[in-house]
Structure formats: structure tokens, C-alpha cells
Amino acid sequence: MKMSLAALWLLLAALTIAPTVAVAQTAAPEKKPAAKQPAPKPETRKQPTPEEAAKQREVFLARIKEKVDIRPDVPYADNDNPRQQVDIYLPKDAGAGEPLPVVLFIHGGGWSGGDRKSYLAPASQLAFGGKYAAISVGYRMSSEAKWPAQIHDCKAAVRWVRAHAKELNIDPTKIGATGGSAGGHLVTMLGLTAGNKELEGSLGKHTDQSSAVTCVINFCGPSDMAAPLMQGEAAKVDDPAVAGLVGGSLKEKADAVKQASPLTWVSKNAAPIMTVHGMKDARVNFNNATKLDEAMKQAGAVHYLVPVTEAGHGIPIGPDLAGRMQKFWDKYLRGQDAEIVVTEIQ
């Protein structure tokens, strides 16, 4: 059975995917209830049972595989650690034409949770269009290894992709990266630290390859790890995720905290970055986005800040935001002339 792109989007909406890239629809304005009539209760989407979710996933995979070659669980660090693997999504006809640009997806989860499998739907959808390849990247959790292990893993994955570009028919000069929260932090670090020996690491067989990426879309990633990420009482103590990442209090691990902060590495040589951040984010304060925006512009680097006025830490992707993201990828990965709009999204 052939599947249209519109039908794919409908199926995507039924799947549970990474919270910062969830598909959402704008609700129509509610009508004012008649006098003396109780206001209608807001409708909520019924969450699927585990059995229903498994069936949806099965149906999705069966249909997506008509056009997408999915290669899961591929090691990139020359070992059998399941966290140091990638899942590859290639258009079925990718080998027939010019090498494709690729987008790397890096998951969030406070550097202590999450999984690359959460990007099954958006990565598949991107490859389904036929103009991009997609690769979802795993990395070691902070319970297994402390910073800078996480960025070492991500850079090793980029080097692996570049080393296998010919085999995958991928353009090694067109590698984008996107992620949310902790993943947003890691892709931003990739965009800021190309060629940085301090953060490169020596994982894998391909240390002769560059770990640079071409461009980045960062969803609500922290940029200043030394400052409180939350507000109120939570701002009075060390952020547990950051403390877990660096392996101790922020004061004791001040050097590691500074090294892990994207603001430390901003320069005119940074890759173009689009930051999408909810203005009501209670987990990673919106000022992380404004700090990065100011620093990038002061350095003469390219940065697009897209505020989402009513969003918290999860960013719903409606048609407006999806269109801006597509133009960003098309501009920097396909060389198309595109204007990136940065006005607030309601």
C-alpha cells in the first residue's frame, strides 16, 4: 500500500515521540456557552494503551518501510555498548542520485535518561520526503560516564557518519543536527566546538575525520550551566541534572560546568544555529535562549531565536514552526535561498 505524506503525518500524530518535537494541532476558539449553561469540559486525547501503542508502531513501521530503509543499532564507537549506537533512516532510492544531506537527531532526558528510539517518527518522516537522510544518535548517560563523555560520544558519531558517507550516499559536507533539552545542549555544543581538542575525545576508528556539523536546530537546550536552570525554590540548589552530569556540586566542579556551557565556546566560527524555546519553560529558563542569542550575535555568528510564547519545555510543532525548520534545513543543507522568520510563534 502506498502512503501519502499527509497520511504519514496523521499516523505520526498518533505516535508518542520526543516531547520537544511533538506534532500538535491548534484548537479552534471555543464558542461562548449559552446563558445558564455549564461551560463544556475541554476535550482531551485519550492516551493509547501499551498494546495500542505497540500496534500503532507496528503499522507505522510497515508503512514507512515502503520508502525508508531503516538500519537500527549500528555501533559507532567500535564496541558493543548499546548507548553508543545510531539508527539510520535512508530514503529507499537514496543510492540512485546525488549524495543527500543528513540530519542527526540527539535525544534529551537530562543526560540521565531518554533514548534515540524516541526519534523514530520525526527521523522517518524526514527521510520519507526523499531529500534528506536522518540518523538518531545515542550516547552514554551520566550514570555511566560523566562529562565530557556525552559530547565525546556525539562527536564520535559525527566522525562515524562522515567516514561512512560514501557507503550511505550522504554528503559529508552537509550534516545538520537537532535535539531537545539535553539533546539541544549537545547539538549546540557540536555547532560551537568544531576542532576543539579539549572536547573531541578519541572514541572509535575514525579520529582522522572531522566532527564538525553544518548547522543546528536547538530546542530549549541550556546554554549557561553555571546559572540556575529553573526558578523559585529550585533555583536555590544545584540543578540535579547538571550536578549529575558533572559528577558533583557546581561549585566543586566549576571547571567542568564552564566547559559544558555552550556560552563558553561561542565564536564567529560557530555553525548557524536556530534556537526554538518556549517562553514559559519552567525546566530550562527562556533566558538560556536569549543569552545564547546575544552572545552569538555579538561574536558575529549566525543565530535565529524563535520564541514560542505559550510553550513550556515541550515545543509543539505546528505548520508555522515546521515550515521555518524546513527552510532552515533547505538553506544550510541544500543551498536554497530561504528567509528564516524569527517572529514569536503564538
Question: Can you walk through the features of this model?
Answer:
The chain is globular and about 55 Å long. Strand 3, helix 3 and strand 4 (133-137) form a beta-alpha-beta unit. The chain is 32% helix and 16% strand. Mean pLDDT is 89; it is low at 1-43. Helix 1 (5-14) packs antiparallel against helix 2, helix 1 runs antiparallel to helix 3 (120-128) and helix 4 packs across helix 6. It has a single domain (5-22, 49-333), classed as Rossmann fold (3-Layer(aba) Sandwich), CATH 3.40.50.1820. The protein has an 8-stranded mixed sheet with strand order 1-2-4-3-5-6-7-8, sandwiched between helices. The chain has 346 residues and is of the alpha/beta class.
CATH class: Alpha Beta
CATH superfamily: Alpha/Beta hydrolase fold, catalytic domain
Helix content: 25-40%
What CATH calls the topology is: Rossmann fold
Summarize the biggest pleated sheet. 8 strands, mixed
Q: What is the CA-atom radius of gyration, in angstroms? A: 20 Å
DSSP summary: helix tally: 11
Mean pLDDT: 89
Taken together, the total number of domains comes to 1
Question: How many β-strand stretches?
Answer: 8
Q: What is the chain-wise order of helices and strands?
A: HHEEEHEHHEHHEHHEHEH
